[in-house]
Prior knowledge:
single chain; alpha+beta; GMP Synthetase, Chain A, domain 3; three-stranded mixed sheet
Amino acid sequence: MAGLWRDIGLLWQSVTLKQKLSDTRKAIVINEMAESSTPGFDFYLLIILSCTIATLGLVTNSSAVIIGAMLIAPLMSPILGLSMSSLTGRQVLFRRSMLSILSGALLAIVLSALITFVAYRIPYGIPESLPNEILARIKPSPLDLGIALAGGAAAAYALAHPRLTATLPGVAISTALMPPLCTIGIGIAFTNRSIFLGSGLLFLTNLSAISFAGIITFALMGFSPVRHEKSTRKIPHSILLSALFVIIITIPLVILSWNTISSARFERKVKNVLTAQISSIYNAQLESIDIQDVDGTKKVTATVRAARSLTFVEVSSVQQMLAAVTQKPIALEMVVIPVSSLDTLYPPTPTAFIPTPTATTTPLPTATTAATPSPQPTSTPTPAFINAGHNDSISLYNEPDGEIIFNLPDTSPVWISEEQIINELTWVHITDVFGRSGWVLRDNLTF
């Protein structure tokens, strides 16, 4: 085991020795970093442009626009300058970097709040609900810390090697700094504390992780503080402070992540129970679930699409099942959206249309002095509605022996309201279940 650790130590020393820079290259890197970390007109102009692009991308929920703001990344250089000054003990570089970070962050937050305040008061199609791009930046996790650590190390290494500067845009995208700052301004504009605190924690996570990773990377490449004769400290004081700050930031990230995981597990249990219980209802489907904490009780609002309304007994049974599975007090609310299923292969049976017969008054006979023969009537003046049907498809005419209007479906019921005899053929006036009327031959009907 001792030999294994010795071999690992020798390998690590050989790797770090190869990465050490010459004194000339170190001086060039420090001078370039001091220049890029100094606040000036160019720096603040890039802050304004990047903040404007990021804020508009967030409120319009546009990922492409947000990526464009990430590529500008004006805060990356001051943060790495902070890492370099913390490691090498250059006070002037430290003050310039801190001034750039604080003033740039404050300018971005104020500008983002103003843009959001104006954007939501002009009719240009801004979504009223919070876009997903904003919601994605209010719940940081330890994964964001890992991304920022890797991105900060990559940025520091690329700055020290001129041939690798092409990788900096990718690093700027992975370790996004401006979108969390703009989300803080959006939270201020909405007066939403959860947005403000969540995005603020994400920005501090990225800031501390990039700074700490930059210090470690610069140290491995040979940058070191100016040693005094009385100093015997092997590990620079700045590395210990940065590591402590990263650990402090990690604590709320772990707590927040644990709460998120617990909420996800609870939601998964609720969804499994609801899906299993609702699937037993004919033609019912779970649409969405909303879970809120109300006075220590989990209020579950489930939206269901069903062909019929749910009874109180059914909803109460589901509520008891949820409480038993989750072991928490549950208040269940079921929102049922009525739906109907139509199949063209099996059309639904239409509701029969039964015309209401009109009552007629028959006049009393008047006495006459001479008997007058009564003519044989050819039509019934008062409709008599008789239920009838037919086995085959028959044609419906607009008048007896007239033009065909349409064909009646097979075996559909009809109602007879009038009858006429023309050319020794009996024609009847019928009405089908859809209220369509016309004339057909009586012999084609089945009574």
